[in-house]
C-alpha cells in the first residue's frame, strides 16, 4: 500500500497510536491540495453597476417654502346703505358669478323709482304736446296767419320740455341703479369663507358682509433671497411639493417676479403657477418649491449613489480599474460641490471618462475583483 492510499484510510479512521504518521499525512494533503471531508471554494466576485464620469451643466438647486394664495380674495360689501332683509348663503357655500348673496330692504327705493318713472312719462307727454303746437305755429306762419313770434316761442318750449324729459330719464336711471344695488350678487366664482351679517342688521357702504375666495388658478408666493433675482429673471425649472400629495413633484412655471423686496429679510417674492388644476390645495396651505438655476458653468458630475460618506467628512467613490479581462476597484477621495437631480458636482479627485461604482459599493475592499452586473 502506498503512502497516499494509507493516509486516505487513516483520515477516515485515524489510529490512536499513529500521531506522527497522521501529521505526515496532513502535510501530504496540504502539499497536493487535498483535504478529507473539506470543500475549499474561491471567494465570490461581487457584481457592481458603474457609471461614466461626465461633464454637464451645473445647476444650483433652491429649496424654498411658500404659501398658496388665490387670485381673488375679497371682503364683499354693499355699495348702498340699508337694512338687511335676506341672506341667501352661509360660510362654506360655493357660489358662481351672479348668484344673489344678500338683499336690502328696498321698499322706499322702489317707490322713488316709480315716482321717477311717472315724471319721465309726464315729461314725455309734455314734450310731445309742445312739438305738436310748434308744427301748428310753423304751418300758420307759412300762410302768414297768427303772431310772427309764435314759431320762436314754440321752438323754445320744445327745447325746455326736451331738457326736462332728459333730466327725468337720467333720474329714472339713477333710481333704477340704486334699486339694483339693494341686491348683492357674487362678483366671481368662489367659496364664502366667512359670513359677517344677519337679517335685520343695518349696513353701510364699505361694511364687509362676506369674505369670498376664488378656488381656481391658485398660485404659490415664495420669498426668495435677493441674490438670485438676476438668475430668476432669465427663467428656471420649477417644481412644487405639497403635503396632500407626499413624494410627488408637480411641474410649475414662474408666473411673476415681484421686485419689491422686504428690506428687513432681503427677499423678493417669486410667484409660482402649478401646471395642474386637479391638485388638492387651498389658500393658506404651505408648499415646498424647488427651483433649479443654471449657473452657466460646466463641470464633472457623478451620481449621488456613487458617494461613500464617512463620519469625519471624507467623501470617496470606488473607481473601476480594468486589466485585460480582469476588473477591480480602488477607493478614491473626491471633493464635491452642488447637488442637483440626483447628481453631484465634482471639484477634484476624478477625471472625465472614469467609471465609478453606483450599485454594490456598500462593502467593497481595496483592490477587490468585481464583475459587472447584468
Mind explaining what this structure looks like?
This protein is an alpha+beta fold and 374 residues long. Among the domains are: 3-32, no CATH class; 47-59 and 298-372, conserved putative lor/sdh protein from methanococcus maripaludis s2 fold; 106-181. It contains five helices and 22 strands. The strands form five sheets. A six-stranded antiparallel barrel has the order 2-11-14-13-12-15. Strands 3-10-8-5 form a four-stranded antiparallel β-sheet, with no helix packed on it. Helix 1 crosses helix 2 and helix 3 (107-142) packs antiparallel against helix 4.
Rg (CA only): 46 Å
Approximate shape: elongated
Q: Biggest β-sheet: count, sense, barrel?
A: 6 strands, antiparallel, barrel
Assign the CATH topology of one domain: conserved putative lor/sdh protein from methanococcus maripaludis s2 fold
Portion in helices? 25-40%
- Give the CATH class of one domain: Mainly Beta
Structural class: alpha+beta
Distance between the termini: 52 Å
CATH architecture term of one domain: Beta Barrel
Summary tags:
single chain; 374 residues; conserved putative lor/sdh protein from methanococcus maripaludis s2 fold; six-stranded antiparallel beta barrel; four-stranded antiparallel beta sheet; 5 helices; elongated; disordered N terminus
Amino acid at each position: 500500500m502506498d503512502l497516499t492510499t494509507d493516509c486516505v484510510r487513516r483520515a477516515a479512521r485515524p489510529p490512536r497510536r499513529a500521531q506522527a504518521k497522521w501529521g505526515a499525512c496532513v502535510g501530504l494533503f496540504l502539499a497536493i491540495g487535498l483535504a478529507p471531508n473539506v470543500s475549499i471554494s474561491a471567494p465570490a466576485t461581487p457584481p457592481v453597476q458603474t457609471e461614466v464620469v461626465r461633464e454637464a451643466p451645473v445647476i444650483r438647486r433652491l429649496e424654498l417654502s411658500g404659501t398658496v394664495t388665490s387670485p381673488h380674495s375679497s371682503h364683499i360689501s354693499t355699495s348702498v346703505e340699508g337694512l338687511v332683509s335676506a341672506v341667501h348663503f352661509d360660510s362654506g357655500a360655493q357660489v358662481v358669478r351672479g348668484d344673489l348673496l344678500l338683499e336690502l330692504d328696498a321698499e322706499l327705493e322702489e317707490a322713488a323709482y316709480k315716482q321717477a318713472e311717472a315724471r319721465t312719462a309726464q315729461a314725455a307727454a309734455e314734450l310731445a304736446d309742445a312739438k305738436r303746437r310748434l308744427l301748428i305755429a310753423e304751418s300758420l306762419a307759412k300762410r302768414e296767419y297768427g303772431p310772427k313770434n309764435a314759431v320762436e316761442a314754440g321752438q323754445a318750449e320744445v327745447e325746455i320740455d326736451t331738457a326736462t324729459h332728459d333730466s327725468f330719464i337720467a333720474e329714472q336711471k339713477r333710481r333704477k341703479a340704486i334699486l339694483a344695488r339693494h341686491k348683492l350678487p357674487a362678483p366671481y366664482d368662489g367659496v364664502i369663507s366667512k359670513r359677517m351679517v344677519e337679517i335685520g342688521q343695518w349696513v353701510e357702504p364699505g361694511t364687509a358682509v362676506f369674505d369670498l375666495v376664488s378656488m381656481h388658478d391658485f398660485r404659490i408666493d415664495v420669498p426668495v433671497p435677493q441674490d438670485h433675482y438676476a438668475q430668476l429673471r432669465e427663467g428656471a425649472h420649477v417644481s412644487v411639493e405639497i403635503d396632500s400629495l407626499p413624494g410627488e413633484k408637480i411641474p410649475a412655471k414662474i408666473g411673476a417676479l415681484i421686485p419689491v423686496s422686504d428690506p428687513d429679510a432681503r427677499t423678493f417674492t417669486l410667484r409660482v403657477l402649478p401646471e395642474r388644476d386637479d391638485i388638492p390645495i387651498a389658500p393658506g396651505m404651505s408648499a415646498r418649491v424647488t427651483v433649479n438655476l443654471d449657473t452657466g458653468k460646466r463641470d464633472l458630475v457623478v451620481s449621488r449613489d456613487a458617494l461613500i460618506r464617512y463620519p469625519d467628512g471624507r467623501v470617496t467613490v470606488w473607481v473601476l480599474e480594468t486589466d485585460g479581462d480582469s476588473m477591480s476597484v480602488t477607493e478614491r477621495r473626491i471633493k464635491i460641490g452642488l447637488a442637483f437631480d440626483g447628481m453631484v458636482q465634482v471639484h477634484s479627485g476624478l477625471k472625465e471618462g472614469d467609471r465609478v461604482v453606483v450599485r454594490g459599493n456598500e462593502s467593497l475592499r481595496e483592490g477587490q475583483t468585481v464583475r459587472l452586473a447584468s
